[in-house]
Amino acid sequence: MKLNFYQLGSGPVSLLILHGLFGSGHNFRTLAKKLSVKYHVYCLDLRNHGNSPHDDDVSFGAMAADISEFMADHNIDRPAVMGHSLGGKVAMQLALSHPEKISKLIIGDIAPVAYPHHHDQIFAGLNEVSRRAPASRKEAERILTDYIEIPEVRLFLLTNLVRGADHSLHWRINVDGLQKGYRHIAKKLCGSPYGGPALFIRGALSDYVKAEYYPEIYQLFPKAHIVTLEGAGHWLHAEKPDKFAEIVRGFLNGDH
Question: Do 36 and 141 lie in a common domain?
Answer without folding.
Answer: no
